[in-house]
Amino acid sequence: MKAIIATTVFGVIMMFAGLWVNDKKSIAGLATFLFAALLGVTIWDLTTTSVNSPKSLFNDMLRSEHYSLWFNTIMTGCSLLYVLLMGKEVQKVGKYVSEYFALIFFILCGLYLLSMYNNLLMMFIGIEILSIPQYILAGSDKRNLKSSEASLKYFLMGAFSTGILLMGITLLYGAARTFNITEMVTLMHSDALNPLALAGILFIMIAFSFKVSAAPMHMWTPDVYDGSPTVFTAFMATVVKSAAFFAFLRLFQVSFNSLSEHWVMVLAIITAATLLVGNVTAVFQQSVKRMLAYSSIAQAGFMLFAVLAVNAVAWQGIIIYAVAYSVATIGIFAVLVKLKDYTYDGFNGLAQREPLLAFVTTIFLFSLAGIPLTGGFMAKYYVLLAVVQQGQLMWLVIFALLMAAISVYYYFRVIIAMYFKAGTPEISSPVTGGDKFMLVVTCALVILLGVLPQLFLTKV
Amino acid sequence: MILILLILIPFLTGIISFTTKGDGAKSLGLLSSMLTLAVAAYVSGANFAAPITFTKPWIPILGTQFSLMADGMSSMLCLLTGIVSLVVMIMNVNKPVERAGAFYGFLLLSQAGLMGVFLASDALLFYVFWELALIPVYFLCSQWGGEKRIPVTFKFFIYTFVGSLMMLAGLIYLSLQTPGVTSYSWNDIVRAGTSLPADQQMWLFWLIFIAFAIKMPVFPFHTWQPDTYEQSPTPVTIILSALMVKMGLFAVLRWLIPVLPAGVAYWSETVVILSVVGIVYASCIAIVQTDIKRLIAYSSIAHMGLMCAAAFTNSAVGMHGIMVQMFNHGINITGMWVIVSMIEQRYGTRDMTKLGGMASAAPAMAIALVIISLANIALPLTNGFVGEFMLFNGIFRADTAGHILIMVVAGLGIILGAVYTLNMIQRTAYGDAGSAVVVKDLSVNEYLGLAIIISLILFLGVYPKPLLDLTAGVAGMMVR
To answer: Could you tell me the pTM of the whole model?
Structure first.
């Protein structure tokens, strides 16, 4: 609650800061400070809400469950990490640095709404607040044609999926006669199952599949992620995507849990398709940035596991997956922005030129591939655990594991380039001591997540 | 407490080794492996009474603990790891290595991973170590290996990674079946597995066995192995063939046979047949090899096949034989690789058609080659004989149909083994000295390394009792 107000105020402050402060550096400094303050506010929210009794806000429009606040805190932490790692690079994108940070604050506002909504309307508003700033960020490098293309493509696809989402909400309202997601459960079950409800669930599932880039609704992802300025891709592919997943999970877990027999198979097929498309296409990419776009689709396939498993472990799974994936991906992007050439060859010989950069990238890639003692392993472990516990989808688990083995292929190509191939990678901006320190902190976080995941989890 | 040292010593010295410059890493590696061997020897000495355990909470919400346990089999394998690592370090003393710090660092880390695999008594911890043992080896092969190292090692890594992931799924499934809360401790996993109905055990068996089959490797999962052995630098080949393939066999004995008895009973015939096919197949290919390294790689598949066949025949003497043979095979194959690397270093080739006349140029080396090769084909009074005798005995006593036929076919492997091994001795040690290269005989460290191996070969061939005593208790428990 306090966090929603704080992030809005901070966003407005950032916008006005652009009027009065002309120095990019101090704007970035102010933003970093505000992000740290925001993290403080989310922690404040978390500690002042009791674990067992969620607070209902605004006539039950929002509900601050403990795990929602926990998710808010962790994602704000990831955003702070993002700003610390990439703040300098954000300054290079264009003139309007303060606006970029303001937009990120607004995105976080959408994230908070999405983690706490208790009403389909709030969910809709949350998704819009989350998405619209992204369309702008995607096109922020406006002299670059690819960036403009990304922005337009993202906007059109986003608008289209929003339409589908609204359609789904309308149908559900027809079936349940309420927008409240907790009341909806009982109303939908009071009489024989309404076909409107099923159609509504399907529409909403498709809309969310767009947002989380699940196949076959993933087509926009590679172009948007590849075209957008790399710094903003890093944010879109991690924090924003996690927020969409959390909203997806929340709705399907709270409202449609008891109807799972009707939709699980559809979602299972979407999951399998996502894993297949993401992993197999990633193998053929020549650019690391584009590979990461496909890898984000592949990782989305794993996150869908949490939605599929309609049980308590899924909450843990989505939270730990979100943080493990976000931290590692932000880390890789932070290394990527330092390089001039985004192809695999651009990484050749990085281990000789910048051993520390190569080392932390290796750890991040290990995490994405799911090697033990990194966060990515624990994340994959949790979502698999959730589905295995649910019991019916063992075929999907095995399929996903085979796909995870494929993912090793393209992640390790970067490692092979860095360590086993000779070359002189061109560094676009000098790697300062501060950068190195932040990368080591990120790397330590990845390992901490893998060794002691309980520090990042909360009771559900 | 003593068990954690077995993992911590190589792990910490490995990390330190990355920061060293020049030859510091060599002495550090030597020191570290001596210390580890001393601890391992102490553990196996103390182990006759009851298993030593060490448990600390790790991730309670997952039901996993940092728990280690050393019984006869574990401590025997730790001892083997200690001896082999020491021999590797000794043999490498006078060899120049590029970026020595990283090289020895990775070697020591893989040693830590291996120790962890052999000691873990918690399934998730076991999985973690299983992967951790692999990663340093991946880097070792890819950086210091032969010409085709990168694709070959990549294949090896992905192959084993697929297996491990399948195993993970199986272990998660098992842990969810444990009585009460989710738990990964060995006892609970065994209780969960044995209580499952037979049809579930049957598919779980493959989920878990596939990882072990790839690691051993059992025919037809062996295709990564000859290439990887050939392309790896010799110290890594030794780690791979003497120790890492034992991980697969060890895992079968610890995490499969006791856990899924009904599944094992159902599939054992299939696995035995695959293993025996592998023995004959690998032996036939070994006969036509001209590259010594590839020859030994295929002979190793044959040897592992025999052990794997015995593991699935459910007889006490067979199980006991595996324990003994795991140790002996580790020692012998280390000896073989050591000799091969010395030949390669001196003659500049491993091609047998170009070699010859070593007995006159370097008599000590030739004698060592002959002794180790004879142990490798299980001549009586060498250590190989004891193990293989027990293995055949076990297969002979098996209660499955056609066990006599299986034993006869497996016995063919021994004969074929004699064919290619003696052929190799003849073509390298005897005949004309083809090249004009001046060949140096053994240097001091090579004498020392080979002396360790040969004395173990002869001692355990004449008096295998200590090894038999160490592993008797565990072997007895394996039988259904």
So the answer is: 0.92
